[in-house]
Structure formats: structure tokens, C-alpha cells
Amino acid sequence: MEEFISMLKGIKPNVDFEKEEALVDDGLIESLDIISIISEISDKYGVQIPSDEIIPENFNSAKALYELVQDLM
Hints:
By secondary structure, the chain is an all-alpha fold.
């Protein structure tokens, strides 16, 4: 999980991914950030996130996103 948080911080360094649980809902990450995150996950983990999984619930926290990636692996 530490490596995953580091990846997210590389995309959006000013966000506390360890504590935030409403990243999308609070506007801390936006659509372009989500595209960058999806691309980075694809490059680092070889995981393609299906379009039906690109929902706020899966991107509101690093934990939720990490669990999604683990499920897709």
C-alpha cells in the first residue's frame, strides 16, 4: 500500500491520500487526475480499470482504489 500511496502522491502531491476519504466528493481530485491515476495503474500494475468501475466510490480514497486494483489483479 505504501508504494501505491507514493504513486498517487506523484500524481497529486498536495493531497493527503492516507487520510482523505472523499477525494472525488470534495473535489480534491478531478477527471484529469483520475485519467492520470488510471494510466499510472495500468503502467505499474498491468491492470485495466473497466469503465463501469470508474465511479466516485472507487476513487474517493486510496484504500478503495487499492482494493479495486487488488480485485482486478
